Structures are given as structure tokens and as C-alpha cells.
Amino acid sequence: MKEYTFETERLYMRPTSIEDASFVLELLNTPKWLLYIGDRKVRTEEDAINYIKVKMLPQFEAKQFGNYTVIRKEDHHKIGCCGLYDRESLEGIDVGFAFLPSYERKGYGYESTSKLMEYGKEAHGITHVNGITVKENVGSQRLLEKLGLKYIKTITLPDDLQPLLFYSNAINHA
After folding, report:
1. What is the CATH topology of the domain spanning 6-129?
2. If 48 and its partner were Cys, which of 25, 67, 79, 107 is the partner (CB 3.0–4.6 Å)?
3. Measured distance CA(28)–CA(100) in Å, rounded
């Protein structure tokens, strides 16, 4: 797989890989991930490896974009992830992000995700992105708005009964 790595003033971002399994295990089991994104049943490092192989790597192979591990330059600590996702249940490309609790509210989400959206536009012509979040996740809503997305409507995805707030930067969503 070709390496698509990005850099900002404070961060490195690279495609999530098998070597990130312990980090993925930690991130997917943080209280906010479980509350706002959902339990992915990743309980062991082996579960995390399988999750990366099944849920993350195939999109990179098919699209050359997907989930990126966000690494802080100053100490090379893995602090979160952001990504551009081509989800079967959503029309268009979805932007997403999650950070370990101690790295929230420091601007890392905006810094990494805006750089990734810039890459998506320049390399893949992705000019319209969407974002989804639960009503209770006000921090995610604020970041989506800061990234230039606007609330459009409440939706429910197939296989999920929880209503989600749908954001987009496309001008033609009704």
C-alpha cells in the first residue's frame, strides 16, 4: 500500500496500520468513543488487528484514503485519528475524528482534519464532505461547523436506530 503521510505544524498523520493495534484498542474503548460512536467489540489487541484489517485497510486499498493515525510531533505520541470514509450507508464522503481524552480541546482535531480535507480535495477532487454525530456530542458538532459543514437534518442509518445529526458542506442537500 502506498504511504499517504501528512504533516501540520504540530502533527503527523499517516494511514492507520497493524502497528497501531494497541492504540486503536485504547481509542475504541475510551468513554466518549463508546458513548458517541459505539461499541465496536474490540477488547484485545488481536481484535484491534482484525478491526484494522477488516474496517480500515480495504478502503485504503480501494480509494487511497481512509483512517489516519494522528501523531504529535513533539513526543511522537499517538493522540487520535481522523479520516475520510466512503460509507455504504451514506451518500458521499464522510469526515470523522476521535482523540484520546487528554488531547481533546487543544485544536488537534481541527488541525488534522482540515489538512486531511485539503488532501481529499487536491488529490481526489473531494469538494463535498459530510459528517454525522449524535445530538449529545456537542464537541463534534462544533468541530464539524468549524470545518465548514452545516447542519442539514437528522437521519437514521440502516442497522442503527440512533438518530444522527447530518452535516454537509454541499450546497445542494435538502
Report:
1. Aminopeptidase (3.40.630)
2. 25
3. 9
Question: Residue 1 has what pLDDT?
Answer: 41
Q: From the first residue on, what is the mean pLDDT of each consecutive set of 10 residues in the chain (174 residues)?
A: 77 97 98 94 98 95 94 97 91 95 97 95 93 96 97 89 91 54
Where do the structural domains in the chain lie, given as residue ranges?
6-129
| Residue 87, C-alpha cell as written in the block | 460509507
Tell me the residue type at 86.
Answer: D
In which residue are the cell numbers 447530518 written?
166
What percent of the residues of the chain are helix, what percent strand, and what percent coil, each to the nearest 5?
Answer: 40, 25, 35
Taking the C-alpha atoms of residue 149 and residue 171, their distance in angstroms, rounded to an integer, is 10
Least Cα distance to 27 among 11, 40, 14 occurs for 40
d(CA 65, CA 87): 12
